[in-house]
Amino acid sequence: MRELVETVLWALVIALLVRYFVVEGYYIPSTSMEPTLVPGERVLVAKFLYRFTEPQRGDIVVFRYPIDNRKNLIKRIVGLPGERIEITGGKVLINGVPLSGELFNRTYYSAGYYGQGEKVVPEGHYFVLGDNSENSDDSRFWGYVPRKNLLGRAFLVYWPPHRVRILR
Fold this sequence. Notes:
Signal peptidase I; about 170 residues; transmembrane; Umud Fragment, subunit A; hydrolase; EC 3.4.21.89; about 15% helix
């Protein structure tokens, strides 16, 4: 009986450590990341990644909401520290150059204080947008995400089974 209790306790400790430091699942509650992520999907987030590497433009990240740290949000990093960012004509301009490529091949709406005119992303912060710009509460409205608020990068949709895929 003692061995069974020890085994169960060690398994619990290991599971909690993995969840806290390595990888965790998150539920997608809204349409803000459509078509990339749809409500009801679940993603795995690599929580350890940003301990060793810097976040990159295009990463889908889970972070603590800057206005209420009790809430977690998921969005795509668009602006990096020190960059000039502007949303105009349906495009995101970084240092005056429009973003291109399949990750950014969508219409972005200039809305909110931070979505109007050119802004500079402060050092140690990131500008994040939902892929569904028309229906996303993101950096355009509440500002920049501090580096310390980043929880990790989403890398895999694991639920529902027919939609399992690696994210980019």
